[in-house]
Predict the 3D structure of the following.
Amino acid sequence: MSPVPDHYRGVWARTLLETPQQRDESTFVRWLQTSLWHADLRIPVTVPEIGTQHQLAGQQGFCGVTQVERQSDGEVCTWQRRLDFQPARAEVDAGVMVFETSERVIETGVHSPYLEIWERLPDSTGRFIALAGLDEAGGDTRERFLVAGRYAMHVRPRRLAWPADTSAGHTLLEVMARHPGMAQALLDFEISFGTLEGGDWTIEQSTLPALTGACMPFAVARVNGTCATVGSPGLGEQWQVLEWSGQEAPV
């Protein structure tokens, strides 16, 4: 796949969502975009520090690769989800993107009616890193760690596969209602967003409420063109470099 245009890269905060059914200005939404990889986190304001299973099932987040295509009506951005907190969507996640300024973009739906306003966070460019977690045998654990400027997102998918009766378009809440004994394992999916500063990884929001506000030592170093090491509690040590651009110094 081709890299996205440079003006997409960084961390974007959603300030407004409008659909025929709702207007949302309160949900915490962050979209981190490197040249190819993205991670997205959406935490409703109704989710407290220690949420109920019902509340936690309403969270959203995903990670994958991004494609931007020029069409007659503008640029169409497609987020190809490789990992998803919710079951697979019934339709492709794609939007028409119109940049009002370099720091503000308006997204409208391709397959469903909606409007979203995104604003790029300061200090979210300059360096971009995308890492894939490796197990002891060198296999992909499906864990991802993405960096854009001073911000980072950690994605660690659930270990449990979706039940066989899960179909595209179902919600996590619906799946849990059918399989209450699997609820805890289905919710065990981490997407954490935060900052990297002064050798610390500080989590601002996470799908795992116990991690929100956590601050822990963090360091990442590129070993060679394909491998990196990460030193931080709760993260694997060995990673494959998917992307490393901008500042070459360890974070």
About this structure: Residues 54 and 178 are 13 Å apart (CA to CA). The mean pLDDT is 95.
